[in-house]
Amino acid sequence: MEHSLPSTAKVEPKIAVGGEVEKINRRVSGKSWKLQKTATGRTQKSKTLRNSWAKRSEERTKINQVKALEKQLKDEKQAAKDRKREITLERKKIQEEKERMEALAAKMSAKRLQRLRKREARKKARV
């Protein structure tokens, strides 16, 4: 024979022992005074959180490319400046050497003139 329950003791299997729980308003534990937790709502997100990872990495690569280009341009400018400085220093060295040689040549020719004058004076003294 089939076992049937009395009509007064009806048990529905979907209803929990503590009573039915509303998923939206109440916690699963059945504590009605505790509110259902929701995800943190950020009204103002930082700039990095607003963008996806792919977008951020793309921006990062663009920034790195710009920085590399800036560095390259700065290096080229500095190299041109260094070349100009080297050329100027080289010209200065050449000019100084030229002046030194001219002064030396002038000094030597003065000594030579002095020697010639002494010879002339000796010649005149003999005659």
From TrEMBL:
It is found in: Nucleus, Nucleolus. Pfam families: Cgr1. Transmembrane segments: none annotated. One of its GO terms (cellular component) is nucleolus. Residues 35-59 are annotated as: Disordered. The keyword rRNA processing applies. Keywords: Coiled coil, Nucleus, Ribosome biogenesis, rRNA processing. InterPro entries: Cgr1-like. It comes from the Eukaryota. One of its GO terms (biological process) is rRNA processing. Involved in nucleolar integrity and required for processing of the pre-rRNA for the 60S ribosome subunit. Belongs to the CGR1 family. This is rRNA-processing protein.
